[in-house]
Amino acid sequence: xxxxxxxxxxxxxxxxxxxxxxxxxxxxxxxxxxxxxxxxxxxxxxxxxxxxxxxxxxxxxxxxxxxxxxxxxxxxxxxxxxxxxxxxxxxxxxxxxxxxxxxxxxxxxxxxxxxxxxxxxxxxxxxxxxxxxxxxxxxxxxxxxxxxxxxxxxxxxxxxxxxxxxxxxxxxxxxxxx
Length: 178
Prior knowledge:
Elements: H1 2-21, E1 29-37, H2 39-48, E2 52-56, E3 60-62, E4 65-75, E5 78-81, E6 84-88, E7 93-102, E8 107-114, E9 117-130, E10 138-144, H3 146-156, H4 162-165, E11 169-177
Antiparallel strand pairs: 1-4, 1-11, 2-6, 3-4, 4-5, 5-7, 6-7, 7-8, 8-9, 9-10, 10-11
């Protein structure tokens, strides 16, 4: 019952996004999703795994906060974003862009590209709704999926197993429509 109520809350937030989205072009920003990155996870990514995160425009990355513009109308329970983040080990770069938050399945997916070559859409994070923070239509915890962990290991030959990264807390998202 609690998960049903949380899903209803997120669908209501998406409805708010749809109301705010009326009247603009599909490419115009409809608001922003901001992710407060988990300091411990980012420390492991940078220090232990040797990966450098960077923003993919028009996404931004400042310290432990990443922001991505919401674009298009929220249809079918999907909130679409532009921009993204990349991870690089100095030789190979993985770009994760065009985020879709699918409230129907509780997952955030992204288009993955390795060294500029698109390899497809992957399930990046499991999305667990939490009580909305101040200024947020909806808030959620983001946990790395096993598929994403396996992709990271395949691309960067990590010193840990994908199972060690499955479910790792990546950050807390705040969806803020205009």
